[in-house]
Amino acid sequence: MGRQFAGICGARGSLYGCVVCNTYLTCSKELTSKAFTGSTGPATLFKRAWNVVYGRCEHRKMTTGWHTVRDVFCVTCNQKLGWMYEMAVSESQTYKETQVIIENANFEKIAGAIKDPLGEDRQEAPPAPNLEMSRYPLEAEKKSRPQYRTVSVSSSSSAEC
Q: Which residue ranges have biased composition labelled Low complexity?
């Protein structure tokens, strides 16, 4: 059986997956910071993650203050990966809200850089349209138009509709 994933959802750059089952979790474009510490050691803050399930909301005292968090688990193997910040009490910590901490021991790089299938990373400008050429020549366009005749209708008081 191959890797399970619900979707890559516009993932670009390096892909990261669960260390146990290699299920796709997130990508390097979603990375916010590597300067975090989890319960098992270093951790990484990502804007979002896919193929995860969330536990119940809990209030936890962390090194930066009180936070409302949910544990995050791999959808395939149920490995605990880290947590998601639901709410921060301190105003200076609100940037973490809705972001996901994944402990470095629980994920690994699963692929090199991938090519953007939609071409959204393209830096060059799109080609300018050629306005001199048209789909139909002007004369052919005139000939293909339906010709309508105008008919005048006089109304009389004795005419019935």
A: 151-161
